[in-house]
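User: Can you write out an input/output pair for a complex, sequences first and structure second?

Assistant: Here is one pair. Inputs:
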Amino acid sequence: MEVCIVFTPDNPNLFTLNSTAWLVFDLCDGRSWKRLQKAYYDAVEPLRSPEEARDELMGVVSDLERKGIIERNPVVRTLRPRPGARGRKTGVASNEGR
Amino acid sequence: MREDKNRNRIKELIHRQGMPPVPAAPPLVTEVRTDGGMILRKPPKKRRFSIGPVLVEWTYGVPLDQIEAFNKFLEKNEEFIAACCQELMEGVTYRGTFLTAGFGDVRYKTFWSYASPEAMGEWSEALKKRSKFITIMTQLRSYWTRDPGRSEMLYQEAAQVTDLAENAESKPFLQLTLAASKVKPR
């Protein structure tokens, strides 16, 4: 099978993910945007430039999020302590529970 | 571990497809079929009769115990090689690797076509940066290099060489050869 079929129970729908969208879906395991971007680029280089890969990724992550296939989770990052400051960043998409 | 295996299979799928498709997640339109039927495939795209004005042929043998592995390597990587040639270079086309189908030596022939002699220079730019393409090209070429009886031939379309004398103008040795063809050996 060369596609991934996804079901979204909250808003009952079926979607067909092609190979690259499937990879992005699979990579959305709670990792950081930077790691997601690198992993996606590694899979499509040299046929995509880093900029093309980034734009594509941004497009598909938004699309998958809009369709309810993945969701963005706020994550707490442990940053190197700086005097008087504590870090809290918003993480990237996760497909957990889908 | 299981996740990695699954992910690697998706990556392999992308790789086998050659040019990675733009990510897409369209809604699945389901249909109810009341009976079965043959799905007619579209005929392959019509090919122009000539492979190209310039053709390069690698000829090489592979030991019998490596044939299956090499064929699997081709099955996995040929679409990717072809897509990289088309995308990263101008006028360079991978035309496939063929295996003798009859009796005799087991030989492979890998064909490349070029839109012009200048297009052969496109490789120098494409091979500058490290990439998966270079890794795979190196592997493909390694099969060729391992055969002591390997050869590499360069062809041009014969119909483009209709005036031998004109063609020999800047090639003194060809001029000598043409003159020699008119001399009877003593």
